[in-house]
Amino acid sequence: MRTVHVFPAGDWSATATRLDRLMPGKDGYWSDGKLFIDLMDEPDGHLFASWTREDVRLVDAALGHRPTWGLLVGVSTHIDGAAEIRVLLSHVLEAGGVAIDDYSDHCWMLQEIDTECTVGGLAFFDFRTHAARRGHQAWDTARASSGRHL
């Protein structure tokens, strides 16, 4: 599963309402079978549980404050996922905020994602370039449909 952390601007109930319009959800969890979305919050201690201090500082600097909630989005390995994650982000980041993928140390704003901006040679959710840089075979549709779980 590939993941994206999302920190939308505003309050969590507005984001939950947007998510409810996009896909089935219940009790802070939404899924359409391609994207798996968990609402995470700091009082539960899960929001930054496995983050380094530097990664938390990146989010703080990008937003201008420490978020108290966010979304953890899992992207199925059975699909490319780039189009699906972009559609989701166009809804939940429309009022502002940032997203962080598994492949770069950059807090991506919606405008950067929409314009396919690159930072350090990587675009948002650029798993193919990331894999190639590490000498790994990039994910592709043939591998996904072969039944192999990555």
Q: What general outline do the C-alpha atoms trace?
A: globular
The helix/strand order is EHEEEHEHEHHH
Task: State Rg.
Answer: 15 Å
Helix content: 25-40%
Uncertain residue segments: 141-150
Q: Can you list the strand order of the major beta sheet?
A: 2-3-4-5-1-6
Round the mean pLDDT to the nearest integer and report it: 88
Percentage beta strand = 15-25%
The total beta strand count reads 6
Instruction: Please state the oligomeric state of the protein chains shown.
Output: single chain
Q: Describe the main β-sheet briefly.
A: 6 strands, antiparallel
Distance between the termini: 7 Å
Secondary-structure-derived class: alpha+beta
The helix count comes to 6
Task: Report on the architecture of this protein.
The protein has a six-stranded antiparallel sheet, sandwiched between helices. The longest helix is centred in the N-terminal third of the chain and has 11 residues, at 12-22. The protein contains six helices and six strands; from the N terminus they run βαβββαβαβααα. The model is unreliable at 141-150 (pLDDT under 50). It is globular, with a radius of gyration of 15 Å. With 150 residues, the protein is an alpha+beta fold. It is 33% helix and 21% strand. It has helices at residues 12-22, 53-63, 82-92, 110-114, 127-133, 141-145; strands at 2-8, 25-26, 29-31, 35-41, 69-75, 97-101.
